[in-house]
Every structure is written in C-alpha cells, then in structure tokens.
Design a protein that fits this description.
The chain is of the alpha+beta class. The chain has a domain at 52-98. The chain is 32% helix and 15% strand. The protein is built from three helices and three strands. The protein has a three-stranded antiparallel sheet, with helices on one face. A hairpin with a 7-residue loop joins strand 2 and strand 3. It is elongated, with a radius of gyration of 27 Å.
Length: 107
C-alpha cells in the first residue's frame, strides 16, 4: 500500500521570476524611497535612553487615578511628567517620564 505524501514544491516547478523581475525591482525601489522620505520627514522616535531624562515604573496599593499621580508629582518638581497607566488596571501600575534628570525618592 503506497501513501501519497504532501508535496510543498512540485516535481517540475516553472516559476517565472525573471519575467516579473522589473515589476519586483520597481516595487522594491518605490518601497525603499518611501521609507527614506518618511525617515527624513518624521524623524526617529528616540526613547528615554537617547533623549535623557527619568523614566520610572511604580505600583501603588491604593490604586490612584492618573490625575492623582500627576498631582502628587507636581510639588516635587515633575510638572511636565508624562504619566501613563499600564498593565492590569486593578493593580495600580503606572509609568512616568520626565525630560530632566533627578533622583527619585518615594515614600
């Protein structure tokens, strides 16, 4: 009894790569040029590693709102800190970024 196995590539493949070469080349050049134009018009999005500044991830037991975290950071000099909730919303996890370099002291 013979079994017929699945064939990924046929026995006699006849794929016309050269026939469509100019189309593939023009698509590749168009895609490369559009990426270069996008890079020069929008620039790179540097993270805190290259911009400098402070980035911290904190977890609170009390689960404050984002505005309450911002209000708590304002008196200690983080007026323009970007505060975002992340992870599970019930755990009270937040991240914040500030462009200045300061030491962080939490109590």
């Amino acid at each position: 009894m013979s079994q017929k196995f699945f064939k990924l590539v046929p026995d006699n493949p006849n794929l016309p790569f050269v026939k469509y070469g100019k189309i593939f080349l023009s698509f590749s050049v168009l895609l490369s040029l559009s990426c270069i134009v996008f890079l020069f018009t929008h620039g790179l999005n540097y993270g805190v590693d290259f911009r400098g500044g402070t980035e911290a991830y904190v977890r609170f037991h009390a689960r404050p709102s984002v505005q309450e975290v911002r209000d708590a950071l304002t008196p200690i000099g983080y007026n323009e800190a970007v505060v975002q909730a992340y992870g599970d919303s019930t755990k009270g996890e937040y991240s914040f970024q500030h462009s200045g370099i300061r030491s962080l002291e939490f109590t």
